[in-house]
């Protein structure tokens, strides 16, 4: 009963589990695809913003008004323009123009005028490269604020190599923070169940929601921001401080960035993966900057983190419904099984007992189950099968006895062999009577046939067997074999091929003792030869006798013919005629004897 229950419930349970896992995978894939799309859209927006900024800064540097930087912007036209741009675009924390010596001569924030930035990385590198450049997201201790320094040289008009100043636009960190925080990871935007984080090539956090920055993923972020505000407010701060200590937006690495292999995958390969943290399974979708034209040099990667348990909460009901359906089905099956048990138990037991007797070889016991259901039909079929099998076995036994009787009555050896490799499988029949060996000994000797077959018949035996195998045709041959007692016996070997799938796989045959037949044939040949010799002697004798008789007879007839022509009396003539007629008659008798 328990087995029946398990067998009945197994398909349903398997179907339920497959449905649950299919729904789970489908939902995870859908969420992953949506997060991929959102992440790619956000990174594309940041990439376009940087592209526009680089183009703007480059085009501003080529404006004619920028030539006034060589004179220190006495009219303040450049500062006015930068102030207007900074207010209009709203994405730059500072816009400044320095002269060739590194002093700010124009700025969107007038408080920065006169500040010496000759030791700032962006000034030094831009002058060195004499080309536009984009720096890292860092705190600028010279002009203040966190941002990405986008700088370009200002060349003197009609000159491609004389730098008269540097235009620097600090792309505001707040813009990145706003873009990252605006990504809709969950329906509420971003919560502890789903949020976005932008990291740099070293795994340090660049932008993330406040609850992440103030949690254990960014617990020092607030102090760094405060220090940035202090540095921005205090223009006299120590600008020679170690950049690695104060220049990062946040001094905390993302928690999985401590693993170099994971960090490398996050920075290079866009994918979705599962990560474990504090017993929670997190779905992380990353979009590296390597696939974007203007962000590829930054080495950033945007991470969208989603709580997998929260994602799968929607499919939990499928699992619960599956369990409920399985429970109801189990109860129904148990009740139905007990209801039907009394109808099927007794015939099954009877069928079981009958099958045990049948397995033991008892074919005389009939199977009688008087029911109209499938078990009754099965019992009827099985009983019919029993009768048929019994009849077949009886016929086979009778046929076997007849064949064995026939084999025993024949003075022959029955054998069977396989072809590849050639091996004698079975030897039976009157082996001892024909060859003087028992069947087992003869089976071993038959493979080494040239030891007991007369050497004059080796070629005949080999060619007969090879032709039978090659042409798949039955064949026979007569050979002389050595008896165990040392004398030779004549055998007529009949070969029958066994074919399977158009290939000869074996041979069967009978070796019949024809020694008596061969002996009788030889005796008949000797008698025939004797008769022929006798006839020839008789013929030769008659020919000699005939010759000896004919010669004087012909002479005598010749003389009588001459006498007949002489003039004799009637009496003498009658006697000569009689003698001549008698001679001719004797000659005819000799001829008749010779013809016979």
CA radius of gyration is 61 Å
CATH classification class of the domain at 177-237 and 244-314: Alpha Beta
First-to-last CA distance? 106 Å
Q: Based on the structure given, which CATH architecture of the domain at 177-237 and 244-314 is correct?
A: 2-Layer Sandwich
Percent of residues in helices: 40-55%
Mean pLDDT: 82
What kind of sheet is the major sheet? 5 strands, antiparallel
How would you describe the overall organization of this protein?
The structure is a single chain. With 596 residues, this protein is α+β, with helices and mostly antiparallel strands. Among the domains are: 177-237 and 244-314, Beta-Lactamase (2-Layer Sandwich); 363-409; 412-513, 2-Layer Sandwich (Beta-Lactamase); 531-595. Helix content is 52%, strand content 20%. The chain has helices spanning 2-61, 77-89, 121-129, 173-181, 210-213, 221-233, 243-246, 260-268, 308-311, 316-359, 374-409, 431-435, 439-446, 458-471, 515-565, 570-595, and strands spanning 92-99, 104-107, 133-139, 146-155, 163-172, 194-199, 205-207, 271-277, 280-288, 301-307, 412-418, 423-429, 475-482, 488-500, 503-513. The strands form 3 sheets. The protein has a 5-stranded antiparallel sheet with strand order 2-1-5-4-3, with helices on both faces. Strands 7-6-10-9-8 form a 5-stranded antiparallel sheet. A 5-stranded antiparallel sheet has the order 12-11-15-14-13, sandwiched between helices. Strand 3 (133-139) and strand 4 (146-155) form a beta hairpin. The model is unreliable at 217-225 and 231-246 (pLDDT under 50).
